[in-house]
Structures are given as structure tokens and as C-alpha cells.
Amino acid sequence: MHLPAWPNTGYSYTKGAVRSSSEANFYAFTPRVSLAYDFTDDIMFYGTYSEGFNGGGVNTNAVGGVFTSYTGEKLIQIEFGVRSMLFDNNLRLNASYFDGTWEDIQVGEALVPGQITQQNAGEAEMSGFEFDALWTATDNITINASAGWLDTAYTNVGAATTIGLNSNFAFAPDFQASVGGQYVWNQENGSSLTYRLDYGWTNDYVTIQDIRLQKVQPQYGLLSGRMTYQPVNSDWSYAIWARNMTSEWYQQGGFGAFLGGVDQGVVARPREFGIQVNLEF
Predict the structure, then answer these.
(1) Residue 259 above 50 pLDDT?
(2) 83 with 47: CB under 8 angstroms?
(3) Mean pLDDT of the chain
């Protein structure tokens, strides 16, 4: 099957007495091929090749009286992995490796103060490894763990002017991990108490791609817990919970315009406690 190539979107129009309009279409063929092999009844290996596409557009805010355009972006990725259920289905263990190339990346740049303009960076590469495990240790105890390693870099900045060559993606820490455990205490009358504790770790990362405004969020860990009471033969359940129990301070976004004395960001929620009542019907 033959599809037309992306049209040339390098056009612009200016405001004037006569109203102007422009139109652009974007096409892409994005195949996905996946192969799986059942090594045993409990272990499956797989490999996948896939492509993704996001169309371009026109900036609605003029720069120097011109409405600039940006073209579509494309992601090409391969992934290899294993899915397994081991030890009489008491241990679920999954792992995967991926490697991708991101072409004509769309990035927002503050070319004019207070105004974001979409541009196309040239190319970036990313790769990573991740695993997750869930172990049913006993009828009452389950333990889960997961971890992910990520490597990202802009290998060609293209038309972008505020991205550093070989810099990492924003909000892309090179390591994240979590571990959790749950214990179910079954009462003699048929009711139950469930105790759960989770801890997650995130390495440091930048919160914006613009090298002029970049701010680093330091590494942090979050601890949360929950206790749930389930009465016997009841559709109701009751829980008390706590999030960010150590009251870690971290930002979920923002930028630092330090020369102007500005450090802006969205601060995450502090330590929280709550009571929850659920009804199943």
C-alpha cells in the first residue's frame, strides 16, 4: 500500500486587512509487528517492532508577525521481553528492554517571553529496561516490586534553539523503583483486616527542556500506607490511609528563571491522612 508523503508545511501567513487561511494534511504509515514464543506453559518471550505518529500544525501565536508551522513527529521502537508465572503461579515475573528513535520531535519553546511556540527538534534516542514482580508468599501475604532504568538524549536539535545537544528529556528520571507489601488478617467471624505499605523512589530529573529555564528536581522517595476493614457478608468496607507519610517536598513541574529572580513550580501534595468508605453494588 502506498501512502502520500508528508506535505511541505513550511508555510506562513500574516495578519492583514484580508482574512487568510491555510490548511495542511499529514500522513504516515505506522506498522506494528509482534512475535511471541511460549517457552513453557508458564514462560513466554516476545519481540515487537512498532512505529507511532503525531501530526503537525500551525502556531496560533505569531512570532514577528508570522504564524510558523511545525511538521509531524514519528517514533520507531523495538521491544523484547519475557512474561512468566512461576512456582505454581505464586510468582509473576515480567521484564522488558526497549530501544527507540524519535524523529522531528515537537517541542514548545519560549521564543517570545510569555508565549510558547511549537518547533521541530531533529532527533532523539531512548532506551530502557524494566521489570515487575508479584509474589504470593502465603495465603495472607503478597509482596510486589518494580524498577525501571531509562536513558534519553537529543542527538540532533534541528530547528530548536533552547535544547542542549545530548541533553535528557524533561520528566525522565534515569531510575525509578517501588516495593510494597500486603497482609490480610482473616478474623474468626469471617471479617478481615488488610494492611498495606508501599514505598517508591525516583531519581532526579529536569522539569523543563528549555536550557535557559531548566530546574532539577532532586531525588525523593514516597511512603504510603492503608488499612482496610471488610465486615463479613457486607457490601461496605472502611479504610484509613496515609500518603507521603514522611512529608517529602518535591515539585511536579515548573521552571527557574533565576536571572529574573523567579523559581516557579507546582508543589506536590504534602503528608495526607484520610478515611474512606466504599460500597460495592
Answers:
(1) yes
(2) no
(3) 86
β-pairing, 91-103 with 141-156?
unpaired
251 or 258, greater pLDDT:
251
Residue range 37-63, pLDDT digits in tens: 999 999 999 999 999 998 888 777 777
The residue with cell 501530526 is 55
Q: Which of these CATH numbers, 1.10.238.10, 2.40.170.20, 3.30.930.10, 3.30.1360.120, describes 32-279?
A: 2.40.170.20
CB 72 within 8 A of CB 55: yes
Helix (H, G, I), strand (E, B) or coil at 83: strand
Question: Which helix (H) or strand (E) is 133 found in, with range?
Answer: strand 123-136
Q: What is the pTM of this model?
A: 0.81
Per domain, the residue ranges of the chain are 32-279
